[in-house]
Amino acid sequence: MERAQEDHRTHLHRVASSNLPIISRESWEYYIAILQPGIPLEKCEHGDFLWIKVDRMVTIDKILKLHFERTGRNSILMDGGIGLTIDMRVRDIACLGLGVYAFWEIVKVEDGGSTRFDRLKLVGAWG
After folding, report:
1. Less packed terminus of the chain by CB within 10 Å, N or C?
2. Which CATH architecture has domain 8-16+28-125?
3. Who contacts 106 (Cβ-Cβ below 8 Å, separation ≥6)?
């Protein structure tokens, strides 16, 4: 019997959750795993994610600011094929389990005063 192909969201969550430390987690604590740009989804491993611990009330805007402080990249976050808006809160996004949210990023590129998304990185993320 052939196994059904995982959707991208489920695949990212499974890979990100594959090597979690065995520690207790408070009910309000969640872990955001962000797949780094340029890594094909099908080849990503647990170590290819940037991790941020948050509470369920935090907004995507706050996560992006923390991400920028750590990486210097101005990005948007994707949950499967859906772009996350800056006013969304973690509590409003369906969690696939273990208190882990796995996203991938699209890097914004400043181009002579206008912003565009790095299409090369977008295409590269999906293989």
Report:
1. N
2. Roll (3.10)
3. 37, 75, 76, 78, 83, 117, 118, 121, 122, 125
pLDDT by residue, tens only, the chain of 127 residues:
444 557 889 999 999 999 887 777 788 899 999 999 999 988 999 999 999 999 999 999 999 999 999 999 999 999 988 999 999 999 999 999 999 999 999 998 766 655 555 544 444 444 4
Please report, for the chain, the start and end positions of each structural domain, with discontinuous segments joined by +.
Answer: 8-16+28-125
Nearest Cα to 51, choosing from 69, 67, 72, 28? 67
Distance CA 106, CA 78 (A): 7
Calpha distance 17→69 (Å, rounded) = 24
